[in-house]
Amino acid sequence: QLQENQDEIENMMNAIFKGVFVHRYRDAIAEIRAICIEEIGIWMKMYSDAFLNDSYLKYVGWTMHDKQGEVRLKCLTALQGLYYNKELNSKLELFTSRFKDRIVSMTLDKEYDVAVQAIKLLTLVLQSSEEVLTAEDCENVYHLVYSAHRPVAVAAGEFLYKKLFSRRDPEDDGVIKRRGRQSPNANLVKTLVFFFLESELHEHAAYLVDSMWDCATDLLKDWECMNSLLLEEPLNGEEPLTDRQESALIEIMLCTIRQAAECHPPVGRGTGKRVGSK
Prior knowledge:
The model has no long low-confidence stretch (mean pLDDT 91). The relative contact order is 0.08. The chain has two domains: 1-132, Leucine-rich Repeat Variant (Alpha Horseshoe), CATH 1.25.10; 177-270, no CATH class. The protein has helices at residues 2-24, 30-46, 48-51, 54-63, 69-83, 93-105, 112-128, 135-142, 150-165, 185-199, 205-212, 217-220, 223-231, 243-262. It starts with a helix and ends in a 16-residue tail after the last helix. The chain has 14 helices and no strands. 64% of the residues lie in helices and 0% in strands. By secondary structure, the chain is an all-alpha fold. This is STAG2 protein. Belongs to the SCC3 family. One of its GO terms (biological process) is sister chromatid cohesion. Pfam families: HEAT_SCC3-SA (PF24571), SCD (PF21581). Residues 21-106 form the SCD domain.
């Protein structure tokens, strides 16, 4: 009897879905399309056994191409709710492979709010499975740390930090109290220098520092470690920094000191609502 009741309820849900949602998710009014996508995200979270599969997820994927920013935004926030729950990751694999390229392209959306949420969604995808995003996908997000729009840059900074800086060597756990050149931050500071030099935007160190300030404050304020890398002899087997790398580290260090002292973003970085022309 319980099974019959459940089947009956699911049949009713299916009829409502086909009779209402399937027509209204393409409604002429953007607000109604947005409500539809927001709700399907809630259904997938609440009743994932019935709704979290590709026959329902495809509607969210298709709607990511909606011409209205508010609707695209609802798609991304609905998906964030799903990717945040690691238990649901296995059910999202096919959707991720099918629509990943679209999510990556949305990091350049003309609406800043949409671009920010696209980057945040990719950060969740990264945490659920590192193999999903290719090196090229990651590169597309990395360069946004130099964006003139601060929320986009900060979201990209968090993505960059999670991908390149948040892994801690298990051996470091026993040497947390080491300081200067021997501290666990030494390799991370070098990684930051290498990233800065590879990006070839050498006049934009202040932008890079500002982008990562919220998520990597401890690293960016480890001036003792930076000083040691500049002044002390390399440890056994350690590659010394080249002149170019030392210059880059000094530039980054100056920017971190200025950021700590002045407590505001660099000149030219704001929080306007829309992206300017490319």
